[in-house]
Design brief:
Number of strands: 7
CATH architecture: 3-Layer(aba) Sandwich
Bound molecules: NADP nicotinamide-adenine-dinucleotide phosphate
Distance between the termini: 40 Å
Structural class: alpha/beta
Length: 245
């Protein structure tokens, strides 16, 4: 039987590439999206045309009812969720003194509550009974080092690291691994507003002398979901071109 993966925020950017790689590696791929319905449908068509197994699910990860409904639908369709990739995220560049309480809460709701919702739902509805599973949380280098003008983003991404480490301790005896992938700067819509000068300034800080692409992340996620990574849990792995060492 094929393994099934759920990728949150899978219609665009890093999540989309993760979906493509898993589908081409023989998984049933469940793509979660929130607002990008058009992109999700295009991806579904593209991979269906390759004869691959893919289906799409609308849910706001910060809404537990929507998440539970999505997980129930996937399990009734495929019988399992073997891999969960908590990738959904937003970014915002703002001086700390300008961050509103609302936008601070929204940052935590999408990254942290979203990760909590999807993870707890998949664990309770499938992985714990099965005593098997892989959970991969997409954090960021800014969750490790902190970034100026991204205090709320850095806080949320650091929280995902603490969440992962604690849960890895708790779930080890159930044969479930939990790891973090903490990308450096990756070419997606999330950095689309950077000017050429800002991009150059970033590249100057990267020993490998380039901004990352989505495949730099998806290959690692696929590896962490594989049997080759069965002794890796609670770890933070950061593909960042050497930007932080
Ligand atoms: P992106 O292209 O903007 O994609 C973000 C994704 O998150 C979208 O698919 C979006 O779905 C989804 N999302 C946002 N809010 C959601 C919600 N409430 N419920 C469900 N999905 C939601 O950005 P990306 O660069 O691929 O980012 C993917 C992940 O990598 C994020 O967690 C980000 O923080 C992390 N990351 C990115 C970089 C980078 O430089 N790009 C670096 C480090 C970490 P809809 O469009 O359907 O709403």
């Amino acid at each position: 039987m094929k393994n099934t993966v759920l990728v949150t925020g899978g219609a665009k950017g890093i999540g989309k590439q993760i979906c493509i790689d898993f589908a081409r590696s023989g998984y049933n791929v469940c793509v979660n999206y929130n607002t990008s319905e058009k992109e999700a449908k295009l991806l579904e068509n593209e991979l269906n045309n390759e004869g691959l197994s893919i289906s799409i699910y609308k849910a706001d990860v910060s809404d537990r009812i929507q998440v539970d409904n999505m997980i129930d639908t996937i399990i009734s369709r495929y019988g399992s969720i073997d891999v969960l990739v908590n990738n959904a995220g937003i970014s915002e560049y703002s001086l700390f003194t300008d961050i509103s309480e609302e936008s601070f809460k929204r940052m935590l709701d999408i990254h942290l509550l979203g990760t909590f919702n999807c993870t707890q739902s998949v664990l309770k509805k499938y992985m714990i009974n099965k005593k098997e599973g892989k959970i991969i949380n997409i954090s960021s280098i800014w969750g490790i080092t902190g970034a100026s003008c991204e205090v709320h983003y850095s806080t949320a991404k650091a929280g995902m690291i603490g969440f992962t480490k604690a849960l890895a301790h708790e779930l080890g005896p159930c044969n479930i691994t939990v790891n973090v992938v903490a990308p450096g700067v990756i070419d997606t819509d999330m950095i689309a507003t950077l000017t050429e000068e800002e991009r150059k300034g970033i590249i100057d800080q990267i020993p490998l002398m380039r901004i990352g692409n989505t495949k730099d992340i998806s290959g690692l996620v696929l590896f962490l979901a594989s049997d080759k990574a069965s002794y890796i849990t609670g770890q933070v792995i950061s593909p960042n071109g050497g930007m932080i060492i």
